[in-house]
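Suppose a colleague, Dr. K., hands you the sequence of a protein chain of 156 amino acids and asks what its three-dimensional shape might be. Before reaching for any lab equipment, you can write down a predicted structure in token form. Begin with the sequence itself:
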Amino acid sequence: MLYQRILRISFFLLVSASLASARDLALVSNKSNAVAGITVPDLIKVCKAQNNRWPDGKPITFIMRSPSAPEMKLVLQKVYDMPESEVNGLIVTSNHGRPNHPAILVVASDEELVNKVANLPGAIGVVDVYSINSSVAVVKIAGKLPLEPGYLLHGN
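The predicted structure, expressed as tokens, is then:
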């Protein structure tokens, strides 16, 4: 009897933890960027610093939370398709020689991410949907907005 109770509680905690880490994320952009939507291949190029300028010539900075943050697991799987250690190496390599305008910028919180995107022309970033405010623009991915069925960064 006690064993079953412990097993049920453990199962409940495991399910709760997995649901808590399954957040819906959104791609947000500086409002001065002319990008309203992006394809998945183009997003991957931006995130991996393979594309460093927008069509209007502005330099691109991709802003993200630390690859070790639980909410970034989805991005590591669906966008980077590589383990955390490789993403960390990519960040260092991509920023080499770009001290004034890094290709990839890592921040500590969603609030800091939104503020950086809002204040840095050419910036784009991935943030929890509930952290979005009017200082940034939401970018469609493959024609879909966050919370729409089929959105790339949907957290389940």
